[in-house]
């Protein structure tokens, strides 16, 4: 398969067309961003690590029955994916209080949330990804009611699969964000799952092993991502 032209450049990933219209190349760059893209830096090896981590986690979800966009690894920092029609929403699930939930409600960071809290955000950096709900989706036609409920269901299903996977490797899946698209009339999990889009804490020390290290100006992000990969058994050679 030949990588052709750049179709879309996001904050940390780039999509390229290929010689097959239904297949794209998803490239993970070394960029890292916060504050809706106002703060951007480069971290050597991050694209490579996240490409491998994303492929590993998406493969686990796929094997457990979640339909994902991934097809096969394409290079050290890119993967062949299905060409989805993306829905402009972020599906967030929280097993413990952290991040914007702590800010919004004043709950102590780390408080277990049972059942997990589900949040929906509209993807719009200019408006800081505002929180929305199913009524907005209907009025603005972002996604059908049927597909929205399927996406929500897959978000909870993914949480069950991944909470177990991480917990077996000594990690707490604090929260995460998923994005979905439509391919041949079916709901498919798209975008990525990596420590950029999830919070992962060490079970014993509660040390952060995700993008909060960057958001909070701490050192050791690449080492933490590598440790996540090592614990999962992802081959980084
Ligand atoms: P939040 O606490 O900032 O709402 O984030 C919840 C989870 O979703 C956290 O794991 C980070 C992830 N997330 C993204 O990956 N991208 C985003 O744009 C947002 C708002 C959250």
UniProtKB/TrEMBL annotation:
It comes from Candidatus Erwinia haradaeae. PANTHER family: MULTIFUNCTIONAL PROTEIN ADE2 (PTHR43599), SI:DKEY-6E2.2 (PTHR43599:SF3). Its EC number is 6.3.2.6. HAMAP family: SAICAR_synth. PROSITE patterns: SAICAR_SYNTHETASE_1 (PS01057), SAICAR_SYNTHETASE_2 (PS01058). InterPro entries: SAICAR_synt/ADE2_N, SAICAR_synt_PurC, SAICAR_synth, SAICAR_synthetase, SAICAR_synthetase_CS. Pathway: Purine metabolism; IMP biosynthesis via de novo pathway; 5-amino-1-(5-phospho-D-ribosyl)imidazole-4-carboxamide from 5-amino-1-(5-phospho-D-ribosyl)imidazole-4-carboxylate: step 1/2. Residues 7-231 form the SAICAR synthetase/ADE2 N-terminal domain. Keywords: ATP-binding, Ligase, Nucleotide-binding, Purine biosynthesis. GO terms for molecular function: ATP binding; phosphoribosylaminoimidazolesuccinocarboxamide synthase activity. GO terms for biological process: 'de novo' IMP biosynthetic process; cobalamin biosynthetic process. This is Phosphoribosylaminoimidazole-succinocarboxamide synthase.
């Amino acid at each position: 398969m030949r990588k052709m032209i750049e179709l879309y450049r996001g904050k940390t990933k780039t999509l390229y067309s290929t010689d097959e219209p239904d297949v794209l190349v998803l490239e993970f760059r070394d960029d890292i961003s916060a504050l809706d893209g106002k703060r951007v830096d480069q971290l050597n090896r991050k694209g490579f690590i996240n490409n491998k981590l994303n492929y590993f986690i998406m493969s686990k979800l796929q094997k457990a029955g979640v339909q994902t966009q991934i097809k096969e690894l394409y290079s050290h920092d890119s993967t062949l994916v299905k060409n989805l029609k993306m829905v402009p929403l972020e599906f967030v699930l929280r097993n413990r209080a952290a991040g914007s939930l702590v800010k919004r409600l004043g709950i102590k960071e780390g408080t277990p949330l049972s059942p997990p809290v589900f949040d929906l955000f509209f993807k719009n950096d200019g408006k800081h990804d505002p929180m929305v709900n199913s009524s907005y989706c209907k009025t603005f036609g972002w996604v059908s009611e049927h597909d929205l409920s399927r996406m929500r269901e897959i978000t909870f299903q993914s949480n069950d699969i991944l909470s177990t996977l991480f917990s077996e490797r000594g990690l707490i899946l604090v929260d995460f964000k998923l994005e979905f698209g439509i391919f041949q009339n079916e709901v498919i999990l798209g975008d990525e799952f990596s420590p950029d889009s999830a919070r992962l804490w060490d079970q014993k020390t509660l040390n952060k092993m995700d993008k909060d290290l960057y958001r909070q100006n701490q050192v050791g992000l690449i080492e933490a991502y590598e440790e996540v990969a090592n614990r999962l058994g992802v081959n980084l050679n």
